[in-house]
Amino acid sequence: MITEYSVVSENDVTALKARVNEALSQGWQPYEGLQVSTPIINGAVAPLYTQVLVKIIPSPQLEEEFLVK
């Protein structure tokens, strides 16, 4: 079961990777894929990289159903 939800965004993919790796070390997991938007700001493309992260705690009932099957 998802217990927490977070969104991290950066204009630099290397900075995003660092933030996601830090979150992974704290028990967060990526949710869905990386999102990239490319707005134009002052005539220049300014990419924004976004990753949704979640914390998941297994539900004992779901674990029991999985193990029974």
> Treating each run of at least 4 consecutive H or I residues as one helix, how many helices?
2
Number of E-type strands: 5
Biggest β-sheet description = 3 strands, antiparallel
User: How many discrete structural domains?
Assistant: 1
Strand percentage lies at: 35-45%
Q: Low-confidence parts lasting 5 or more residues at pLDDT below 50? A: none
Order of helices and strands: EHEEEEH
Strand order of the largest sheet: 1-5-2
Shape: elongated
The radius of gyration computed from the alpha-carbon positions, rounded to a whole number of angstroms, is 17 Å
- Measure the end-to-end span: 19 Å
What is the typical, i.e. mean, pLDDT? 90
List the helices and strands and how they pair.
Layout: E1 2-10, H1 13-25, E2 29-37, E3 40-41, E4 44-45, E5 48-56, H2 60-68
Antiparallel strand pairs: 1-5, 2-5, 3-4
Provide a brief overview of the structure:
It is built from two helices and five strands; from the N terminus they run E-H-E-E-E-E-H. It has 69 residues and is an alpha+beta fold.
